[in-house]
Amino acid sequence: MNEKKEIILRYFNEYRTRDQKILHRLFHLRFYKANERIYQPGTPAAVYYIASGSVGLFKQYDKNPPERIQYINAGHWFGFSALFTAKSRCESARALEDSKLLALCISDYEELSKNNPFCALKIAQSVGRELTEELSNIRDEYYLLTSKLTYANILV
User: Fold this and answer.
1) Is 96:54 a contact under the CB 8 Å cutoff?
2) Is there a contact between 91 and 71 (Cβ–Cβ < 8 Å)?
3) How many CB atoms lie within 10 A of CB 98?
């Protein structure tokens, strides 16, 4: 069994066998070395699933060096705004360690949506769960930060 098939069977085990075969055809297995750039602002859209390793998202503010704005570890999606908007990327992504990623080009996702809407919906739901969890974490962090600032009389 090839490595991509093993990864798809492991991480998409709740999908029907037929859908796993489709994912095997559409996903591209990519290997990145530590500190290797995955994408930069303005690059073509794809959504990624981290099979192993970790990824950092970086954004440049003004003329300062890019700052890491997010750490993402194995078992999570990133680059998913490409699924929902036609906007170009405003951040860059880089492998923080040697990493294996499954990449799904947006054109392939659109094809999947037309030919197998059930499978496309499952991917969208998986990404949606990730977004919901991320938003919940941001809200929790916001609450803790504003509480600390209020307690310190910095925020009124």
Assistant:
1) yes
2) no
3) 14
- Of the candidates 7, 5, 14, 38, the one whose C-alpha atom is nearest the C-alpha of residue 129 is 14
Residue (of 108, 87, 92) closest to 56 by Cα position: 92
Cα–Cα distance measured from residue 124 to residue 132, given in angstroms and rounded to the nearest whole number: 12
Cα–Cα separations (whole angstroms), residue 10 to 14, 127, 142: 9, 17, 35
Tokens representing 5?
A: 């098939």
* DSSP state, residue 41: T
**Domain 3-151 carries which CATH code?**
2.60.120.10
In the chain, domain spans: 3-151
Q: What does the pLDDT read at residue 80?
A: 83
The dihedral over CA atoms of 141, 123, 125, 1, expressed in degrees to the nearest 10, equals -80
pLDDT tens over the chain, length 156 residues? 689 889 888 888 888 899 999 999 999 999 999 999 999 988 878 899 999 999 999 998 888 888 999 999 999 999 888 777 777 788 999 999 999 999 999 889 999 999 999 999 999 998 888 889 888 988 998 989 888 888 888 866
